[in-house]
Amino acid sequence: MVSRLKYGNTNTFFIRGTAGNLLVDTDYAGTLSLFYKEIKRQNISLKDITYILATHYHPDHIGLVSELMKQGVKLLLVDAQREYVGFSDEIFAREKRTEVESIQKEEATVITCEGSRVFLRTLGIDGEIISTTSHSEDSVTLILDDGTCFVGDLEPMEYLGAYEENEKLAKDWERILSFQPKRICYAHANEKVFEM
Question: What is the pTM assigned to this prediction?
Fold first, then answer.
């Protein structure tokens, strides 16, 4: 079961598995109280969140990660994302109104895209994580076997024609479409449901 959490500018998603649960992305730093209100509204408790997966490490996707990790939520880190974990530190350091601690990547559970299906199965979630680097080199997409895809900031496929040359975006969508998706969940756009 998937719940969309909206408590700021970024759509985040809570996925219930049979043996553990996964939060996909968080919003910007400073939204923790709004996050608490939203999960309460949806009958989710903090202890229900086993892991957080960031689709990429831009500030509007990882602003609450370090705070949630301090409260016992584990970070699920794709190995290709490892060098980008601190990407937003400098941006957060310029913020005067919010203090954000760096994410402790040493405490993360690190997996590969190739091993993601096996790992997700331990949570009772059927799906896999693929690399989709047209937005940023650390961007990943989570694709569930039920056809639900979490693409973060990937440009919608309808925008492909607006780019004269974006082979990376075209390849990302070609790969996603090979899974025959039924529902695309974006971080900043309305979801797309494919007609059956």
Answer: 0.95
